[in-house]
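Workshop exercise sheet. Pairs work together: one partner reads the sequence aloud, the other fills in the structure field after running the prediction. Swap roles for the next sheet.
Pair: D.N. / O.F.
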Amino acid sequence: MRRTSSLALLLLIVVAAINAGGNHPAFAAGKRASEKDDARADPRFFQMEPFSLAVIRETGVRSRMVVSLALELVEPDARTAVEKALPRLNDAFLTDLYGVAALPWPGGRSLDPELVKHRLLKIAKRILGPGKVKAVLIRDIYELPR
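Structure field:
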């Protein structure tokens, strides 16, 4: 029973963290409706669904991490190419995030945001081709202790 309640609590925390990304109405109450619509409708950015991963060390799972990303597009027309390649992008990004999170970082950190942005941009350019993505932006990173 204790393990079940711990898992339920962890699931609740992860769901809350994902919803805290800024698009949930409860967290956007301070913004005017037109500001929210403008941010979502900005054709220069492609908002990706959050990635949830386990941070694994030699003793097992150390924590859970939720990473929210956006792609800054070179031109609004690149959105179609991103949508077409989204399953491949998601798979490649998640694979790379797991690899980077498994590295031993100084100071107990789980990853280096600048390195992650650089690596994911390289992956996006490889999958989409040149002239589609200008940058990978990290919107939020949540790390939840085990």
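Discussion prompt: The CA atoms of residues 3 and 9 lie 10 Å apart. What would you look at next?
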